[in-house]
Specification:
By secondary structure, the chain is an alpha/beta fold. The protein folds into two domains: 200 residues, 2-enoyl-CoA Hydratase, Chain A, domain 1; 48 residues, Orthogonal Bundle (Lyase 2-enoyl-coa Hydratase, Chain  A, domain 2). The protein is 45% helix and 14% strand. It contains twelve helices and nine strands. Strands 1-2-3-4-6-9 form a six-stranded mixed beta sheet, with helices on both faces. A three-stranded mixed beta sheet has the order 5-7-8. Helix 1 packs parallel to helix 4, helix 4 runs parallel beside helix 5 and helix 10 runs antiparallel to helix 11. The model has no long low-confidence stretch (mean pLDDT 95).
């Protein structure tokens, strides 16, 4: 059964969770499919932005409860400490692959984004949610902790008391509340359409400059002042006067869209 689909149109990759009958609940097969899709897009030279969404009436309801029985198996437990994807295990890479990607990723959320789905969404650069979407760090409900990169991503997005409130309670919170907390970027009645509009706008910008901007923002989240200032200068020096910049300047002067190779 298919778990994930990918379609690339005009430089925008649409990655959809396709387990709608199960509310896109994540099992190990879906985790592998998500990571595989993400890494394929990292290698795709024609992709300039990604929209991440779920089919059916929800984005992702979290870990499939039928997968809980597998978690305690010795061969599965052993994999928790394996760093199979750089500094991540498989489940952490479900979220972190989107930060690892060179181009911007926009998550379109509707229905619910619980547990695994919530952490995956936090890996996106931007999150657009329908107003009635519910979000939750759901793991404590099952006697577990968030372990899919959430504790790397969440401190970059919101306050520690918010993280503690959501983690300790496992309570679903409305997208409107999560907007105030910085976990949702914008609200939209049709989040996929809104995310696609943003991705299309991004795809029309200079691809090298966009990748440099994502690198620089990522560096600024983890490094100190000196390293960030030096990186700003180095990234800008690599862009100034290059064919991409010159084409953008010419396009603006001629009143047309820039053409990139």
């Amino acid at each position: 059964m298919s778990r994930v689909s990918t379609q690339i149109t005009d430089g925008v990759a649409h990655v959809r969770l396709t387990r709608a009958a199960k509310k896109n609940a994540m099992d190990f097969a879906m985790a592998e499919a998500i990571v595989e899709a993400g890494h394929a897009l990292i290698r795709a030279e024609d992709v300039r932005a990604v929209v991440l969404s779920g089919e059916g009436d929800t984005f992702c309801a979290g870990l499939d409860v039928l997968s809980f029985a597998q978690l305690a198996q010795p061969e599965i437990l052993a994999k928790f400490m394996e760093r199979t994807h750089d500094d991540c295990n498989l489940m952490q890479e479900v979220a972190m692959v989107w930060r690892r990607m060179e181009v911007p990723v926009i998550a379109a959320l509707h229905g619910v984004a619980f547990g695994a789905g919530f952490q995956m969404a936090m890996g996106a650069d931007i999150r657009i949610a329908a107003p009635d979407t519910k979000l939750a760090i759901m793991e404590m409900k099952w006697g577990l902790i968030p372990d899919m990169g959430g504790m790397v991503l969440l401190p970059q997005l919101t306050r520690t008391d918010v993280i503690r409130r959501m983690t300790y309670s496992a309570k679903p919170f409305a997208a409107t509340q999560c907007l105030d907390w910085g976990l949702v970027t914008e609200l939209a009645d049709d989040p996929v359409a809104a995310a696609t509009e943003i991705a299309t706008e991004i795809a029309g910008k200079g691809p090298n400059a966009m990748k440099a901007a994502k690198r620089l923002i990522g560096l600024a989240e983890t490094e100190g002042r000196e390293a960030v200032l030096l990186a700003e200068s180095a990234e800008q020096k690599a862009l100034i006067g290059q064919p991409e910049m010159m084409e953008i300047v010419a396009a603006h002067m001629e009143g047309r869209a820039p053409r990139f190779g």
